[in-house]
Amino acid sequence: MTDLSKRNTLRLAAAAAAGVALTGYGIRPARAADGEPLKAAWIYVGPVGDNGWTFTHDNGRKAVERKFGDRVQTTYVENVPEGPDTERVARDLVSQGYQLIFGTSFGFMEPMLKVAKDHPEVKFEHCTGYKTLPNLRTYEARNYEGAFLAGIIAGMMTQSNQLGLVGTVPIPEVLRNLNSFALGTRVTNPKASTKVIWINSWHNPPKETEAATTLINGGADILFQNTDSPAVLETAESMGKYAFGWNAPQLAYGPKARLASSIIDWSYYYTHAVQEALDGTWATGPNQWWGVKEDTVDLVDVADFVPDEAREKMEEHKAGLRDGSYAIWKGPVQDNTGKEVVADGVVPDDDWLKAINFYVDGVEGKVPGA
Amino acid sequence: MLRLELRPIPSRFWATASPLLAVLITAVIGFALFAALGKDPVRGLQVFFWEPIKSTYAWSEVGVKATPLLLIALGLAMCFRSNVWNIGAEGQYVIGAIAATGVALMATPETGRWIIVPVLAAGVLGGMVWAGIVALLRDRFNANEILVSLMLVYVAIQVLNYFVFGPWKDPMGYNFPQTKNFEDAVLLPRLMQGMRANIGVLIALLTAVLIWLYLARTRSGFALRVGGLAPAAARYAGFSSSRALWTVLLVSGGLAGVAGALEVAGPVGQLTPHLPAGYGFAAIIVAFVGRLHPLGIVLAAILMSMFYIGGELAQSRLGLPKSLTDVFQGLLLFALLACDTLIDYRVRRKKRTT
Amino acid sequence: METYALLFGSMLSAGTVLALAALGELISEKAGVLNLGVEGMMLCAAIAGFATTVSTGSYIAGFVAGVLAGAILAAVFGWLVIWLGSNQYATGLALMLFGTGLSAFVGAGYVQESLPARMRFTWFGLGDIPIVGPALFRQHPLAYGAMLLTALMIWWLYRTRAGLVLRSVGESPESANALGYPVRRIRLAAVVFGGAMSGIAGAYLSLVYTPLWAEGMVAGRGWIALALVVFATWRPLRVLLGAYLFGGVMMLQFFLQSESIPIPSEFLAMTPYLATIIVLALISRNATWIRINMPASLGKAFNPVS
Questions:
Q1: CA A14/CA B334 separation, integer angstroms
Q2: Edge-to-edge strand ranges of the sheet holding A243-247
Q3: Can you tell me the distance from the alpha carbon of A54 to that of C283, in angstroms, rounded to the nearest whole number?
Q4: What's the burial of A326, exposed, middle or buried (CB within 10 Å: 0-12/13-18/19+)?
Q5: What radius of gyration do chain B's Cα atoms show?
Q6: Quick one: how many helices (H) and strands (E) in chain C?
Q7: CA C268, CA C277: separation in Å to the nearest integer?
Q8: Which fold has domain A143-263+297-354?
Q9: Which residues of C touch A364 (CB under 8 A)?
Q10: Cα B184 to the chain's mean position, in Å?
């Protein structure tokens, strides 16, 4: 905000500024010249130490550094709020010469689009988004596959037939994970039923604890969650129940409670994207959605005390996902009001999966805001 | 042994110098902090104090950031001068943004530019209503305005969530919690090409001038100032404290509301759950550092924006954590409050009495 | 039935955090000093306690660190407000903002860490008695500590000379000063006690309630504690009961969700805050009643003529 005396200076500078802007303020040549390392940047919505979403992205970034060494130079900015601040950070990265920029949160979409339009020579990749440009493409992980596999184990191991899920915010991705988990439980246990509590926040461990406690008090003996912190896992441990790790192995938390961990490994995708940029084959296209098949999603570290039967069933389905012979979302699928949402034999496409806004049969309650 | 001695009249020199000294102290502590963290302290100070203002583009960014801070702080200054502690400006900001969105969503591709006026007016009204609740509860029920306004912040955030997750969700948005992008007619015109600063900057500056005129030159503005300083005297002179209460709360609510409207119709262009950015709280610091005076607040808003932007740059350029910005902002206010003592007190060496 | 007993028990846990912080603030306000920085103190104590316990493995050390963090911050606040005469509201806000930032800054390195999960307490089998057990006897020692503290506070404030002196400092510092009591030092002691209690509350949150650290994890509980003191008209037992009430409201929203009560979850999430506002309005309605119960010098600076 300029004070009154500087306003005139601003006007005088406007003409010059317009000229500068038109010639492309701060643009550097985008293609990496031979010998010059490719500069790639990651924009994170949370802290790299969150041991969850951002943590896994940063591991992917580090894998890129390990694989490409001198050919690549990376940086990251963490805790970037979604909105106008994202735009500022993105523009600053561009002005510093970064040629490939990854934005790892849905809320970065609009700001990244704005910056991408102004800088067609810089490549942008937006995680979990859906709008693209010639120089901006989208990617995400099929972590719902991990949720499904966890559900298989949970369905077999539950004794109360009541499961609990602590949900963050009812966006389609979370609903998809929730539903996939429930579908997994139903594969092995037709009587399994899942209750959901929404904490309406992405990161609030005390609330997660309270929600988890409420679910357990209500009869759930296995919990699943979409939150990043180990709060749910720890609550399960302290109350003698079971839960899963999410997004990251989270091995240290809840040693007696953790049944397995659904993880995302971004290293495959990121090295692929950087390789394309280095080779000059990077191009926009349909959403890159990688899952178990591409080694990006997995259910790992199954605990020793999980019965072999459950473990084998899970591995069987994992193999099916890997070779493409098994589809989680294959009709007939009903929502929990009895309406059929996927017809018999139909396998819905990715677009349909991205817009899920219902609870499948097996989940109790109603989607908030639906 | 040092002691404090009350001055016969408050020092005018220190009234102006105190914020400057506070900034200096904060910078010195910052210098030490950077060094302790193993970063180049000179570069650290440069990132916070020079980078954010070194080009026109940078100034435009400062403008974008400072507009909401300035508007909200102007309103808060009026409140604090009247001893009304409106801590919930954040909530009024959010409700103003929601109200503005409600009008903005009614626009169609054929709507003309005039829609901006009702959009902004809705923002003002929304903020006023929210602050009005605080005024009502204080006026009729004696409820402490600090706590009521603050609780309303949390309520406002839930109201926001309700709308973006529910009725206003973009039907083409794959069920993500955000409204559709506003039609172009609604978006605030930019001040110049390539820069993000929009007419909000001018509105904010104009408001600063108007508020200054009001406080300095009108009878009711005078009444407000007196009412805060000496409530009994004010009542004796016939200035109604209830009227002052409503005035300042409605004004500050309206200002916070229009700040929210400017934010959604400006840099963001839609309503998302990420709207609450803490401006309502940062504006408290801006109001104090600006000595509750409109001109001071303009300068303080610029300073705070520099802290925000510098904090981001410190991250990407120096690898410093984001929370450093909050630490500096808190430190600044502490330093200011400590330095303000010098306005009313002299520091003297205590003479040992024999 | 079991479910309701469990709900009651979790209400006690949730309320303990609020009670500990609010009881401390009560003492501070009884002496006439309003400290708005409770949220900041709790956050700093939470990270101090957490970091200490992660490094040393000792929970006692963690709680001590939390208490020290709260006490030190409160002392700084007290010095500014009592000796330098700066505005109590503004300084308290500065403390809140600074404490929030400082805790996030220090805590950045601890976000990955975690402590062993909460222990389960059954207290010699009492916790296994049907209904009553889950409701009352599965709490962490601090929960019972809060109840004990309330009783002690009632005794100390209203039955001891020291408590009388504290109250008189809050009602009329000039008279207390005239009687020769060191008003400023008494106020500082009260403020530091308040900070220490906020410290215990913050450490409880990050060591016991949810044994990990996340930025801003206090999430408004400090503000609710402040409201509680007014809501309870500055009386310890009412503070405790009010804390449980609010803890209950906080847990109730999740309970209602899990029972699939069709109220939008956002409205449920509003309930603790709406409840605070409504209760505040009702309590404050009677201006005379407030004036009788509120320490007369609350919020005002005291300058001894020396």
A1: 38
A2: A243-247, A258-264, A297-300
A3: 46
A4: middle
A5: 22
A6: 13, 0
A7: 15
A8: Rossmann fold (3.40.50)
A9: 260
A10: 27
Q: Are strands A297-300 and A333-334 parallel, antiparallel or unpaired?
A: unpaired
Q: Do B333 and C274 touch (CB under 8 A)?
A: no
A68-86 pLDDT tens trace: 999 999 988 887 888 778 8
Which residue out of A194, A196, A209 would a mutagenesis test of the C interface target, given it has the greatest number of C Cβ atoms within 10 Å? A209
CATH topology of domain C2-293: ABC transporter involved in vitamin B12 uptake, BtuC (1.10.3470)
Fold matches, A27-141 and A143-263+297-354 = yes
Contact A152, A317 (CB under 8 A): yes
Of A232-236, B1-5, C196-200, least confident by mean pLDDT is B1-5
Nearest CA in chain C to A369: C264
- Cβ neighbours around C177 below 10 Å, total: 18
Predicted TM-score (pTM) above 0.90: no
- pLDDT computed for residue C37 by the predictor: 93
8 Å CB contact between C222 and C99: no
Task: Mutation target for A interface from B163, B175, B275, B315: give the one with most A CBs within 10 A.
Answer: B175
Residues in chain B within 8 Å Cβ distance of A92: 312-313, 316
- Are residues A238 and C214, on separate chains, in Cβ contact within 8 Å? no
All domains of chain B, ordered by start, with CATH? Answer: 1-39+320-354 (no CATH), 51-318 (1.10.3470)
Please tell me the distance from the alpha carbon of residue B240 to that of residue B258, in angstroms, as a whole number: 27
Helical (H) or strand (E) element with A245: strand A243-247
Q: Rounded to 5 degrees, what angle do the CA atoms B45, B47, B51 make?
A: 125
Distance, in angstroms, between B214 CA and closest chain C CA?
24
Query: What integer best gives the mean pLDDT of chain C?
Result: 87
Q: Is the pLDDT higher at A324 or at A211?
A: A211
Cβ A19 vs Cβ B223: under 8 Å: no
C93 touches chain A (CB under 8 A): no
Check CB contact under 8 Å for C111 and A364: no
Contact flag B142-C108 (C-beta cutoff 8 Å) = no
Q: Give the span between the Cα atoms of B72 and B131, in whole angstroms.
A: 12
Cβ within 8 Å, pair C86-B338:
yes
Query: What are the boundaries of each domain within chain A?
Result: 27-141, 143-263+297-354
Which residues in B lie closer than 8 A to residue C102 (C-beta atoms)? 323, 326-327, 330
Q: Cβ contact (<8 Å) for C111 and A369?
A: no
- Cβ pair B70:A357 closer than 8 A: no
- DSSP 3-state of A335: strand
CA distances A13 to A83, B60, B186, B199, C70, Å, are 28, 12, 28, 17, 50
The H-assigned helical ranges of C108-261 are: 132-136, 141-159, 161-171, 173-178, 183-204, 221-231, 236-258
Parallel, antiparallel or unpaired: strands A297-300 and A258-264: antiparallel
Type of residue at B264: V
Q: Please, which pLDDT band fits residue A5 given cuts at 50, 70 and 90?
A: very low
Alpha helices in chain B (DSSP H): 12-36, 41-49, 56-81, 89-104, 116-141, 145-165, 199-217, 219-229, 231-236, 241-263, 279-289, 294-313, 323-344
What ipTM does this complex have?
0.81
The CATH number that domain A27-141 falls under is: 3.40.50.2300
Whether chain A has a CB inside 8 Å of the CB on C211: the answer is: yes
Q: What is the mean pLDDT of residues B238-260?
A: 88
Across the range B196-208, mean pLDDT stands at: 85
